[in-house]
Amino acid sequence: MGHAAQTAPSGPARLPRIRFDRNELSGAFGDIGTDFPLLVGMILAGHLDPTGVLVLFGAMQVLTGLFYGMPMPAQPLKAMAVLVITQKVSGTVLFGGGLAIGIVMLFLAVTGLIDALARLVPKTVIRGIQFGLGLQLATLSLKDYLPAEGVAGWGLGVAAFVLILLLLGNRRVPPAPLAILLGIVWALVLRVNLSMLAQGVGLHLPTFHTPSVHDVWTGFLLLALPQIPLSLGNSILATRQIAEDLFPGRQPSVRKISFTYSAMNLINPFLGGVPTCHGSGGMLGHYTFGGRTGGSVLIYGSLYLVLGLFFAGGFGHVIQLFPKPVLGMILFFEALALLQLARDRAGSGRDFSLTIVVGLAAALLPYGYVIALVLGTALAYLPGLRLTDSALSGAKPQDR
User: What is the DSSP letter of 373?
Assistant: First the structure.
C-alpha cells in the first residue's frame, strides 16, 4: 500500500538492532497487503508448493532483519509476480528467472555497474515504469479478480473496498490484515472443509531441486529482463534513500543492498521460494506502523515460517478457495499508490508526457519494461527534450 513519508526517529540517538515490543509487532503488518496477494497469486498461477514459498519467504525476512538490524523486509519481485499471474508462467520458469536475476544482480554489484546504471536512468523513466506497473495491477484487479466470484463476489469486493478506504492510513488498525481476515472468514464459512484443513496440519519441509539451463534462460528473457529496470529504481535506489531518511548515518550502500538482493535469489530457487527483493515501500510500511529495528521483520518472517512449516497443507486448500475479489481490492489500492507517484512529474509537461509514454510502453508492449527503460532513457537525453533537474535525479524515499 502507499504510505506517506515519515520523519526520522525522534527517540534515542542509537536504536538497538533488534527489539521486540508492541510497536515492532504492529510494524510487522506494515506491508502484508502487498506481499500476501502477490504470493497467493503466484502460488495459484504457477501451481507452486505453498511450503517452499512460505518457508523461504519467511526465512528471507529473518535473514535480512538480522543482517541489517532495521526494518528492511524482503518483498516479492513485483514485475515478475505480475507476469507470472497474468501470463500463467510455470513455476520452473519462475525459479529459473529468480536465479537469473540473482546472477545478474551479483554481476552488477561485483563490477560496480550498479552504481553507473543508478546514475544513468532518469527519475522520470523510473516514474514511468512504476506507472506502467500500476496500470497492469489495476487491470488485473478489475478485469480478472473482481468479477471472479459473480454477484456475491462483487458484493464482497465492495465490502473490502469500503473497509480499506475507511482504514487507509490508520496506524492502530491497518486495513490490509482485516481485509485478508474478511476473505479467510468468507472462505472458511462458505467453502472450506474444516476436516480437510485439520489433515493438512503437520511438519512440512521445502524440497530441493535445481533449475535447468533452459528454465534459467527462459526466465531471464520472460521475467528477469522486465524486472531489472524496476529493481534499479525501486529495490535499490529508493530503498537506500528511505534508509538514509529514516536512519541517518546507518543507511546501507547501494552495493550492499544489491549483494543481499542477489543472495536471496541465489538461494530461493533451489528450495521452491519465489524471487524476492528489498523495497522502500516495505521499509516505510514497517516504519509507519511502528517498526524501528529488525525485530518487526523477524516477527513478520516468523509468521510465514510457522505457516509454511506446520500449516502449509491447510493453507494450500484455503488459498485455492480464497475469494479473489478481496485480493483484487488490495491489489487495486496498491495500483493506485503506484499510479499516484507520477504526480511529482506533473509540474513539467515534458516530464509528465515522457512518464506516461514510458508507462504505456511498459504496460502494453511485449517486453514492455525493457523497451520502456531503453526508449525512455534515450528520449530523456535527446538534446531537444529538456527535462527538469529533478527529472534526472535519483528516486525519492516514497518510491517503491
Answer: H
Share of the chain above pLDDT 70, in %: 87
Grid look-up 520502456 returns 372
Cell numbers that stand for 65 in this block: 532483519
- At 196-216, the pLDDT tens digits run 666 667 788 899 989 999 999
**In whole angstroms, what is the distance from residue 55 CA to residue 69 CA?**
21
- For the residues of 30-88, what is the DSSP string, one character each? TTHHHHHHHHHHHHHHHT--HHHHHHHHHHHHHHHHHHHSSS---EE-HHHHHHHHHHT
| Arithmetic mean of pLDDT over the chain | 82
Q: Report the amino acid identity of residue 130.
A: Q
Q: List C-alpha distances in Å: 353 to 25, 50, 107, 313, 350.
A: 42, 42, 34, 49, 5
Q: Which residues contact 256 (CB under 8 A, 6 or more apart)?
A: none
How many beta carbons lie within 10 A of that of residue 360, not counting itself?
Answer: 16
Rounded Cα gap, residues 113 and 66, in angstroms? 27
Residue 354 has which C-alpha cell?
515522457
- Residue 92, pLDDT > 80, answer yes
Q: Give the up-direction half-sphere exposure of residue 352: CA atoms within 13 A in the CB hemisphere.
A: 11
